[in-house]
Amino acid sequence: MPLGPPAHVPGAGPYMYGPDAGPHAALRGARMRAPYDGAHVRRRLLDEQRFERVHGALAGEVNAAANGTAPTTAVTTPTSMSVWSLLYRRRIDGGRVRDMALVLLTGATRGIGAAAAVELAREGVEVTLVGRDPERVRAVAQAARGAGGGAPVHEHIADLTLMAEVRALAEEARSRYDHIDVLANNAGALFASRRVSAEGFEQTFALNHLAPFLLTALLRDRLGGGRVVTTASDAHTGGRLDLDDLQSERSYAAMRVYGTSKLCNILFTRELARRAPELHANCFHPGVVRTGFGKNNMGIWKILTTLGAPFFRSPQRGARSLVWLSVSDEAAGLTGEYVVDEKIQSPSAQARDDTLAEGLWERSAQLVGLPADLPV
User: Fold this and answer.
1) How many other CB atoms are found less than 10 A from the CB of residue 308?
2) Is pLDDT of 196 > 80?
3) pLDDT score recorded for residue 306
4) How far is the C-alpha of 224 from the C-alpha of 85, rounded, in Å?
């Protein structure tokens, strides 16, 4: 018999715990429409073993609540985050049963990242937030926890312009999470002038392309059967990718370099889908959104983004495709696609160049010190 809060328990939320509520791997099983491989089977067995260890204790809490001898919060809001992390939930939502997922979201402290964090949390998704400013990460995490979904919200601090910090983030995530259902590569920026990181990388290319490339590669074994969602842009149509000048050393124009980095996002997505068919890799254009984008610069860029803000999309609207690609059933079967307003669109001719995508992959792997044939 499924373990769960009886309908008559006061304050019981729309969640069920127990064998019928999971555990499943990665939005998990049928929702991802991905076959189980050996790793999935081993992971599921481990999850089931862990589940059994806490099942008895939680059953006692539920029964006590049903008998009126324990607070109902023991049912709807377990105090132990480790229990939440070990038990996969199902949420009754408009007649559909939804498995709890874990989404790791970069660029989570502003604009569409912050909006997506709150919306995912509201839907009962376990969210892992990544940002470089601890205070902003903490503020968004607080907003996400207050959204009402009840799932855990985790916080990680990393400056993704530095590959050393990307590696440190990946190591933290690997040590903390057995499986990541969705990796949302959302961090990005436009720099008005050419800047080089302490590691020698041009910062636009480093943050907007190399960071998601490296993070995805380092977390690949935690993503089996999962989704990789990358924030691209229709600015890619103004980009021009030269594999012999990835660092924009020959010339630098802010919008062209930014557009090229967004072109890289689409090429990366398409090549990842080809090389890792067990994943569901997609990217999207969020529209022109009122965010902190461009305000990291001084002068004309800050003025333009401030003056244009009233005419831009809200962050919530811009985040819609990110959330849709991350958790919707409709997007579960997509891979290698470029999405605009929750619809598949065809990107530019250069973004569809498979030879260019392969070349970018190989050069990127060399730059970050990975084998060119990763993943295999």
Assistant:
1) 12
2) yes
3) 53
4) 18
**What are the backbone angles phi and psi of residue 266, rounded to the nearest 5°?**
-70, -45
Lowest-pLDDT range, 24-28, 171-175, 305-309? 24-28
In the predicted structure, residue 308 carries a pLDDT above the cut 90? no
Residues designated catalytic: 258
Asked if residue 26 lies in contact with residue 32, where contact means CB atoms within 8 angstroms, the answer is: yes
**Helix or strand run (H / E) with residue 96:** strand 96-99
SS (H, E, C) 307-336: HHHHHCECHHHHCHHHHHHHHCCCCCCCCC
Instruction: Report helix, strand or coil for 26.
Output: coil
Residue 305 pLDDT grade (very low, low, confident, very high; cuts 50, 70, 90) = low
Residue 85 one-letter amino acid: S
Amino acid sitting at position 201:
F
Nearest to 127 by CA among 166, 153, 95, 92: 153
Residue type, 291: T
Tell me the sheet residues that pair with 182.
103, 227
pLDDT surpassing 50 at residue 286:
yes
Supply the angle between the helices 254-275 and 211-218 in degrees, to the nearest 10. 20
Contact predicate 108/33, CB 8 Å: no
Q: What is the C-alpha separation between 269 and 179, in angstroms, rounded?
A: 21
The radius of gyration of the chain's CA atoms, rounded to the nearest angstrom, is: 21
Residue pLDDT, tens place only, 205-253: 999 999 999 999 999 999 999 999 999 999 999 999 999 999 999 999 9
Is residue 256 within 8 Å of residue 279, measured between CB atoms?
no
Cα–Cα dist 8/87, whole Å: 23
